[in-house]
Every structure is written in C-alpha cells, then in structure tokens.
Design brief:
By secondary structure, this protein is mostly beta strands. 6% of the residues lie in helices and 36% in strands. The longest helix has 6 residues, at 89-94.
Length: 369
C-alpha cells in the first residue's frame, strides 16, 4: 500500500488490516429534539452517467467510500421544530402530530417542505410521517398502520414491513426493509459505524429501491436510491444523500473504537490509518532511542525478537527488515488520517497500490491520495 508523504509531517503506518470479522452492531431509533439539525448533500445522477450495480457491490461489503466524486450537488438542511413555529400547528393537532422535520435551502434560506409526525413513533429509519407538506404548499395526510415488528432497535438480519394509508384516496405505501450489512461508511462528515438497510418501496408512484446507511444512534448518514430492479437484475442508482454537517444529534468526529474499526475493514482493499506529527516534534518524544533521523530509520535498531515464518524456510536464516513501533508514545501522535481508495461502493477499486497520486477533490479511479 502506498502511503502519503510530505515535507511537513512524519507519517507512521502503525497497523495492518485484518480480514473482515463483523460483530453485532445495533442501531437505535434517534431522539429528535427541537433544535436538532443536520445537512445533507443531494446528488442526482445524470441518466447518461448512471451505472448498473450488482447487489453484492453494495451489500457484500463492510466498508463504503461514499464521498462525492463530482463537484456538483445541492445542500439541504434538515431541522426539528415545533409545528406551530412553521405555521403548521393546526394541521399537526388535527392529525395527532407533535413534531415537524423540515427541509430548507441553506443558501437561500427558504423552506422546502415538512413532515409532521409523533415523536414516539420515530423508528430507526426515521419518523413515520402523518402529514407531508410539499414545497408548493400542497399536503398529503398519511395514516401509519400498526407494526407487527417495531424497528426501534435493528441489527444484521432483522426484517420488518411498514404500511401507511393515504387518507385522500386509500393508496397504501408499503416498505419492506432488511438489515443486510454492517461496517464503516465514509461520508463528507467523516467515517461512521453503520448498519445498511435495504428497502423496497411500493404503492406510491414507481417502485423504488432505497439503501440507508444508519449509525448506532439512528442518524441516517447516507441514502442511495433508484428504481426497484426486477429479481436478479442490477440496481441503477439515481439519487444519493450524504451527511455533510450535524449539530446536537451526535458529536462530531470519529467515535469508533480502533479494534472495531480495524476488524470491519477488508484486508488490502479499503485503506489504512496513519498517525502523524508535525516535523517540529522532537523524534525522541516518539521513541526514546530516536535521537537522530538515522537512528529512526535504521533496520532492527531496537533488537526486535524475530519469529521465523513457518511457511517460508528461507526466513529461518535471513532476518527481514523490521522496525519496532512498540515503544512509540501515542500521546504525541496527535494527527490521525484514514486513507482509502475511491469508488469502493461500486466495486471498482484499487486493490493494493495505485500507480498515480492525485490529491485533488475528485481523483479518478486508479489513483491514490
């Protein structure tokens, strides 16, 4: 694996990726309080740029690099408010709703629409809307039907069905959902430990396939949507939403324990974690024997105990080149960077090392950062 180097930093690769060994990851329904807000980037894929994906390209993974590969995209701000604060107090009361989840254009400051719902009916996949108010002011009233299985906590293998009836014409919206994978999703807001929910939506317009990447606390960090494919057919993504920023809903930053993070990755195909410090940091603060650059880079300079490879007889007599990082002081390694290949969700990845370095915003496939 090729690593990033620069004149201003010392980068130390201190871990090796292990084969994927997923544990139990449970996502719980979010507590959406008044004032909570987050921003999603919405990407609509042009028809000429749409690529067909086999289900395994999404569902058989434990790591998804969902960062945008194009500059285009619009931002949508989601906010939890009291219905009365957005002029929807009366319809909310008439339909038994006590919360409004509204979208707005953060650049223009205009509201795009709202969902009215009951706080105690919030599922892991989001609120069960009792009324949907569209951008032009038109509204649809929906009556959620009782759930046989209430998905307030979900883990790999869980399945359920959600039904709701549109009051105006009796149309029934049906969502068949299943948790098909768990792992790490990398979105513009950073890496998140997630479960992947596959949904089939029918009964309202055209049938749709929706993939939701949901963090432990119920935050939907990404969705990928397209027409529902026929059995055995490929899935063609048409629309994506990616988490960009968040406020009180969860703390910012990486909150994944390193052992769980490492176990979730696929060896040799997803990336690596780097620890780094600025070059003004004394080398001896990292390792007591590193008094000079020469001492730092010398082979086997700490007398590492050598264990021959039982599958390689030659290794019993030829000492390999090794460094011992066991005495490093992690407190001084204040910078951490996760490096990954691009377009991982489409299965088109750079398996081991890539030929060309590209540190731009949208590096093409076959490059590394």
């Amino acid at each position: 694996m090729t690593t990033r180097t620069s004149a201003s930093a010392l980068l130390l690769l201190v871990s090796a990726l292990l084969p994927a060994r997923a544990g139990v990851l449970i996502a719980r329904a979010p507590r959406l309080d008044e004032g909570d807000a987050f921003t999603m980037r919405v990407d609509r894929v042009n028809p000429d740029d749409r690529e067909a994906l086999e289900p395994s390209a999404i569902e058989a993974r434990t790591f998804w690099d969902l960062r945008p590969t194009v500059a285009e995209g619009s931002l949508v701000r989601w906010s939890v408010v009291r219905p009365a604060d957005v002029g929807l107090g009366d319809p909310a009361e008439a339909n038994g709703a006590d919360r409004a989840l509204c979208t707005s254009d953060p650049a223009a400051g205009t509201r795009l629409g709202c969902q009215l719902y009951r706080a105690d009916e919030t599922l892991v996949t989001g609120p069960r809307a009792r009324m949907i108010v569209n951008e032009g002011g038109s509204a649809e009233v929906w009556v959620p039907q009782p759930l046989t299985v209430s998905p307030r906590e979900i883990a790999l293998g869980d399945r359920w069905v959600e039904l709701a009836t549109r009051r105006a014409d009796g149309v029934v919206r049906r969502v068949e959902a299943e948790v098909v994978a768990e792992g790490i999703a990398l979105v513009p807001a950073g890496p998140r430990e997630v479960v992947l929910v596959r949904e089939a939506l029918t009964g309202e317009g055209g049938a749709r396939r929706i993939y939701r990447f949901i963090a432990r606390n119920g935050q939907v960090v990404a969705t990928i949507e397209g027409s529902l494919p026929r059995p055995g057919a490929a899935f063609i993504p048409e629309r994506r939403e990616l988490l960009v920023a968040e406020s009180l809903l969860v703390d910012d930053g990486l909150e994944i324990g390193f052992p769980e993070f490492r176990r979730a990755l696929q060896a040799g195909k997803t990336g690596f974690l780097q620890y780094s410090v600025e070059n003004s940091t004394p080398l001896s603060s990292l390792h007591p024997s590193w008094t000079t650059v020469g001492a730092m880079i010398s082979i086997d300079q700490t007398g590492v105990a050598y264990h021959p490879d039982p599958g390689d007889p030659g290794s019993a007599v030829t000492l390999p080149e090794v460094w011992d990082f066991g005495a490093l002081n992690p407190v001084t390694l204040i910078n951490r960077t996760f490096n990954s290949t691009r377009n991982d969700s489409a299965g088109n990845i750079c398996g081991n090392s890539c030929s060309t370095r590209n540190v731009g915003a949208t590096p093409p496939d076959g490059t590394w950062q």
